[in-house]
Every structure is written in structure tokens, then in C-alpha cells.
Amino acid sequence: MLGITWTLAMAALVHRDVLPYWLAEDSPGRALRAGDFQTGIFNERGDRVGTTWVNATPTADVTTVYSLSQLDIGKVTGLAPFSGPLLLETVVIFSGDNTLDDFKLNLMGGPMPVRVSAERFGSDFACTVRLGDSTMTMPFDGRTSSVLSETLRPFTHMGKLHVGQSWRLRLLDPLALLKGEAMEFQTELARVTRREQQSINGVELECYRIETRGAIAWADDEGRILRQEVTLPFLGKWILLDEPYDAAARRAAMTLTRISTPRKESRDRSRRREGR
After folding, report:
1. How many Cβ atoms from other residues are within 10 Å of residue 29's Cβ?
2. What single-letter DSSP state applies at residue 126?
3. CA distance 69 to 264
4. Which of 102, 106, 74, 72 has its CA nearest to residue 88?
5. H or E segment at 5?
6. CA gap 240, 210 in Å, rounded
7. Which residues is 18 bridged to in the sheet?
């Protein structure tokens, strides 16, 4: 009897936790059109705690996505060991077939600057982490990193979606290092669970509902993320809403950082590594 119970328990475990990863499809790709986009970040009370501005420059050979986020963690929790605005900058470069080629993350405004860079070498990445004056290097498998994002904003623009679709998602927590935790690339399963009505800026729209652990997102038929709800340890629930682009607000945020927008030579270097 004990053997039967154990067998049934293991079968349930495989069906619930293991099989979905085996059956996960390739990612839906990216349907990013050229342009500027903005996402407002709010807490559960509706107070704005930050804004993300995204600039996308897709071409036939390479797509560069530059993102700048301004966050005020103090509006969310009093447990943070720092105060004032945080600035999070990411530069992500994809090849024409949606392969991740290059990733950079800079976090400023905390007790010390954080810089993460990852460059592709064959099927793997060399990932360098700089925390203040300390530097460490860690490899990770590029074959499972075609969809790399942040825990603060797990989903971005995606390609064609359909109900039942699933894929593996690699997430980096940019605040973990500031909290004294080890840096990890979490692997999560994302799934399109159903179509449902969602109120977006007062308009009822038919959306795809996408779920992963700790986050739910709603996307339109073109794969553009219109709303996300993200639950973060110690920070509670954040609500991310697609909203009109405010160039003046972005310029004001840029004055708080010395980081420049991505240069052409960084994209050329990525292409040379692959012989394109």
C-alpha cells in the first residue's frame, strides 16, 4: 500500500512540476516595433512608485532594447536599507532569430552601484557582476536564456500568442545584490492560460492572460503587454500599466544618471562574435 501511495505521489509531482518544463515550447519571440514605450509602476493603493521608458530599434539583423526605470522603493516599504530614487538601466541585444546576444544591467542610487554584463560565447554566456569594488564572474547556459528579464518586470513585448502556449523564462532580481543576497538567474515556467476581458485605461479589451510564479500579465493580439501584476518579497504587489510616452519625464530621469544610451559599436561587437 505504501509503495502504491509513493508511486501515485511521484506521478502527481512529475505531472505538476516536471512535465510542464519538458513540454514547454520555444518562446513566442518578440513583436517589438521600433519606437518609444512607457510603463507606469504603481503599488496596490494606486500610488506611482516608478516609471519605465523603453526604446526599441529592431532591424533585420539585430534588435536593441534600451530600458530605463526610475523607482522609489521607499514608497513601497520601509525595510529597504537605502532611500531615494533608484535608477535601473538595461540594454538587451537580440540577433535576427531572437537569440540573446548581449545583456547589460546597471543599478544606481543604492548604497553602492551594481553592474551586470553578459556576453555570448557559443552557446554559453560569460556573466560579470560588479558590486561596488567587488567583481565576480559566473557562466550560464545561453540555450535556456532566449527570454531573459527582470523579476520587477517579467514580461515585455512578445510575438504571436495562443492559449496553452508555454515557455521557460529566465529572471534576474536586480535588487537581490543590494539586499546582500547571491545573484541568481531563476528559471520559471510561463504559460498562456486563457483569453479574458481586461479593463485597460477604462476600455474593455479581449486579452491573453499569461501567468508565471508571482506574476500575471495581459497582452493584446499583437503581444504587447498592457498590464502586469507582480508580487515581490518585502515589496508587495506592483501593478504595471502601459501608458502614453512622456519624453520630458524620461529626460528628467536621465539627468540623474551619467549612463549613455547604447552605442552603435556595442551592437557591431555582438554581430562580429557570431560572424554576422
Report:
1. 17
2. E
3. 22
4. 106
5. helix 2-13
6. 14
7. none
Instruction: State the pLDDT at residue 204.
Output: 94
Residues 6+ apart with CB under 8 A from 133: none
Percent of the chain with pLDDT over 70: 70
DSSP state of 20: H
Where are the extended beta strands (E) located within the chain?
A: 35-43, 48-58, 62-71, 86-95, 100-108, 114-121, 124-131, 134-141, 148-150, 166-172, 185-200, 203-212, 215-219, 225-232, 236-243
DSSP 151: T
Cβ atoms within 10 Å of 52's Cβ, excluding its own? 23
SS3 string of 167-211?
EEEEEECCCCCCCCCCCCEEEEEEEEEEEEEEEECCEEEEEEEEE
Q: What is the pLDDT of residues 20-62, one digit of tens each?
A: 433 345 566 666 678 899 999 999 889 999 999 999 888 888 8
What would the pLDDT profile of 93-105 be if each residue is shown by its tens digit? 888 777 778 888 8
Confirm if 121 and 102 have CB atoms less than 8 A apart.
Answer: no
**For residues 37 and 156, is the Cβ–Cβ distance under 8 A?**
no
Neighbours of 248 (CB within 10 A): 7
DSSP helix/strand/coil, 218: strand
CB 22 within 8 A of CB 6: no
